[in-house]
Write a structure and sequence with these properties.
The chain has 176 residues and is α+β, with helices and mostly antiparallel strands. Helices cover 35% and strands 24% of the residues.
Amino acid sequence: MRKYKIFSCIVITILGGLLFLPLGPRFFYAILFLLIAFTIISFFQLTKFTQSPVNGYKNPYVDTNLYKLPLTEKSKLPPINYPTFKPQTDEILYFATETSQKNNEGVFLITSQRCINKNITQNYEISLKDIKGVKEVSNSAIMIETDKEKNYILLNSTQVKITTEVLNWARRGILQ
């Protein structure tokens, strides 16, 4: 009990000493405290937004860390940076990612009306209404099934789950 009393007396003495300092040093310590607090807050804010990408891959079109899975009707999607996309009437770009087929790299886009696969050897689009199913077939590929065919899209392994989720979310929106 005596230890706590001594400790509290020391703290009160230090705080009292600061309170009764002349205005100049009190002002100096207040500014010093604010600078230290600002530095610490800035450090944590910068490290929060500059986290290293998962498995060394960073999607160049969208920050995939901002997606909150699973997506619901009330989900808000982060902004997509794909300036060359030309939307159709009332079309919204939901997601963009790179495809990873060797010697046939390209981009895979998901919109409110269709999904688009652009790469070196072929470009095609599929209306969301025509899609019968979407599933992950491996850790780096998804399959999009229509009445006519099955399309396989090779992606970076960190993008497969998000791509599948966004595509299914977009389909739910079109089918309602």
